[in-house]
Amino acid sequence: MSAVHPATDAAPAAQAERLKLTEIFLSLQGEARDAGWPTVFVRLTGCPLRCRYCDTTYAFFGGEWWDIDAILLEVAKHGVRHVCVTGGEPLSQKRVIGLLSKLCDAGYVVSLETSGAIDISDVDTRVSRIVDIKTPDSGEVERNLWDNLPLLTPHDQVKFVICSREDFDWAYKVLFEHSIHERCDVLFSPSHAQITPRALADWIVEARLPVRFQTQLHKALWGEEPGR
């Protein structure tokens, strides 16, 4: 992780502008609409969900407190336009709303990766909200906040992680029941521990779904290496 800039516990005003971070790092965006772009990732600590396929369990606990202004300075050091705020579940820290707006004000192309279990209505509309709708095999399907769907715009994205044929059929039904593909881009991603990328690709083609197939580019390049 990059050098930590902890906030001062003695200053109440400063505390109001702090977030707990697991890491900040530069890599290629491996998923979604901006896949392939050099991107600074700001990974916040903590998540109220426990998805069975989670690959960032190390972000559940620990972390360091950072002033929001220090986060902006660290992001600027990397010299790229794209910033992705992720987790954990970044919206579990309410002050992330301020960070997202400040990143937009600074001229970055900003995306937010969120579980879809927390209200997205306060997120700056300049941010591309990537909402991960939880399928039954995630173990967290009951946490989906369906009220988020009417808030989606063409600037946003929705992701389904597919673990089985049953997940695929469920996602197919949800996609059309809520006309999600008419609101924004929709991404179907395979959970590699459960199904092969080829199987999911074949199902999408066979069903002629109006969705984008995706795999995790960063894992194809660097495997499970942290900070990549």
Automatic annotation (TrEMBL):
Its cofactor is S-adenosyl-L-methionine; Mg(2+); [4Fe-4S] cluster. S-adenosyl-L-methionine binds at residues 53-55, 88. InterPro entries: 7-CO-7-deazaguanine_synth-like (IPR024924), Aldolase_TIM (IPR013785), rSAM (IPR007197), rSAM_QueE_gams (IPR027621), rSAM_sf (IPR058240). Its EC number is 4.3.99.3. Mg(2+) binds at residue 56. Keywords: 4Fe-4S, Iron, Iron-sulfur, Lyase, Magnesium, Metal-binding, Queuosine biosynthesis, S-adenosyl-L-methionine. It comes from the Bacteria. [4Fe-4S] cluster binds at residues 47, 51, 54. GO terms for biological process: tRNA queuosine(34) biosynthetic process. Catalyzes the complex heterocyclic radical-mediated conversion of 6-carboxy-5,6,7,8-tetrahydropterin (CPH4) to 7-carboxy-7-deazaguanine (CDG), a step common to the biosynthetic pathways of all 7-deazapurine-containing compounds. This is 7-carboxy-7-deazaguanine synthase. The lineage of its organism: Bacteria, Pseudomonadati, Pseudomonadota, Gammaproteobacteria, Lysobacterales. The gene is queE.
